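Figure 6 in text form: structure in, sequence out.
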């Protein structure tokens, strides 16, 4: 199944941060921190009142940062297994790499 986000939404595959050290010590989440993910799909951008599209300045495979509560999570079946993706508005992104 191929997902295509609409307008200024961006489809992201989350990147899970490692929470253990090399010596197997588990690190607790002590504060809210930005999350990151890899851009999987983008669309042309939101249609403005004048009929033009607002440009989206991220591309497929960019690494982006966002807050914990910004994206919506969706789950789709691919090749017989369930895969989780995040959908986020372009304006909710904090940074890109």
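Output sequence:
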């Amino acid at each position: 199944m191929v997902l295509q986000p609409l307008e200024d939404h961006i489809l992201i595959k989350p990147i899970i941060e490692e929470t253990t050290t090399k010596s197997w010590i588990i690190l607790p989440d002590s504060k809210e921190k930005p999350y990151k993910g890899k851009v999987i799909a983008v669309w042309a951008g939101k249609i403005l009142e004048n009929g033009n599209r607002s440009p989206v300045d991220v591309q497929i495979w960019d690494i982006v940062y966002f807050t914990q509560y910004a994206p919506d999570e969706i789950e789709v079946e691919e090749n017989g297994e369930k895969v989780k993706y995040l959908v986020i508005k372009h304006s909710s992104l904090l940074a890109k790499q």
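Caption detail: The longest strand covers residues 81-89.
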